[in-house]
Design a protein that fits this description.
Length: 216
C-alpha cells in the first residue's frame, strides 16, 4: 500500500454534476435578465467555491449585495435539481469498493457548500464508505488553503505526507501541494490535463481503476 489514506474532491472527481450546477446558475442569471452561459463554460467557472462561482458568471460591476442574493438564489434552485442529471463517473463505485476492501480510509474535501456536499455523498454513496466528508464551511478556509486538508488528516488520524489528494482542477493540485499530500489529477473531470500538468500533479490517471492499481 503506497498511501495510508485518500482524500477526494467531489465534483469532477467522483460525481459529474456540471449540468445541474449550470442549470441552477443559469436560472439565477435568467431571473435577473443577465446573460446565461453554455454548460461547457461552467467547467471553468466552478471549483473555487460558491462566492467565486457567482462572481465569474454575473456581469462585470455587479454589486456585492446582488452577489450575496445570487448565492442565496442558487441554493434555492440547486436544492430542487442537484440530483437530476448528476451521476458518479463510470468506475467510481467499483474503485471505492476496491479501496475500502483494502482497508484504505477515504475522505472527501469539496469547495461545494457543506450542506450540498453531505446530500450528494449520502445520495450517491448511501453505504457511506467515507470516514471524513466536508464541503465549504465558514469555520475552515476553502481549498487551495491547506487548512481543510490538514483538518481532514487530523480527523482521520493520518499524517498528511502519507495521504493522496485526488481531484480534477488546479485548485486540487495546489491543495495537495500546500498540505504536503501527494497530488493526483483525473483526466475525466471538468478541467483539461494540461491544467493538471501545469500545476505539477504528481500523478495523472485516465480511469478510476488506475487509482486502485496505484494504491494497492
Amino acid at each position: 500500500m503506497r498511501f495510508s489514506a485518500i482524500l477526494f474532491d467531489l465534483d469532477g472527481a467522483l460525481v459529474d454534476s456540471i449540468e445541474d450546477l449550470a442549470a441552477s446558475c443559469n436560472k439565477v442569471l435568467a431571473a435577473r435578465n443577465f446573460p446565461v452561459h453554455r454548460v461547457e463554460d461552467y467547467n471553468f467557472f466552478v471549483g473555487d467555491g460558491l462566492d467565486v462561482l457567482m462572481e465569474r458568471i454575473v456581469p462585470p460591476g455587479t454589486s456585492a449585495e446582488v452577489l450575496v442574493a445570487c448565492c442565496q438564489e442558487f441554493g434555492l434552485h440547486y436544492q430542487e435539481c442537484w440530483h437530476e442529471n448528476s451521476t458518479p463517473y463510470k468506475g467510481i463505485k467499483q474503485m471505492i469498493n476496491d479501496l475500502r476492501e483494502a482497508e484504505i480510509p477515504l475522505g472527501i474535501l469539496s469547495n461545494k457548500p457543506d450542506a450540498f456536499t453531505q446530500k450528494v455523498v449520502e445520495f450517491f454513496f448511501p453505504e457511506h464508505p467515507f470516514t471524513y466528508i466536508s464541503g465549504q464551511r465558514a469555520d475552515v478556509p476553502k481549498k487551495p488553503n491547506a487548512a481543510g486538508a490538514l483538518l481532514a488528516a487530523r480527523t482521520m488520524g493520518i499524517e498528511a505526507q502519507e495521504m493522496l489528494f485526488i481531484g480534477d482542477t488546479s485548485v486540487d493540485m495546489q491543495t495537495g501541494k500546500n498540505s504536503g499530500m501527494t497530488s493526483l489529477g483525473v483526466s475525466w473531470g471538468f478541467r483539461p490535463i494540461k491544467e493538471l500538468r501545469a500545476h505539477r500533479a504528481d500523478f495523472i490517471v485516465n480511469t478510476p481503476q488506475e487509482i486502485v492499481e496505484l494504491c494497492l
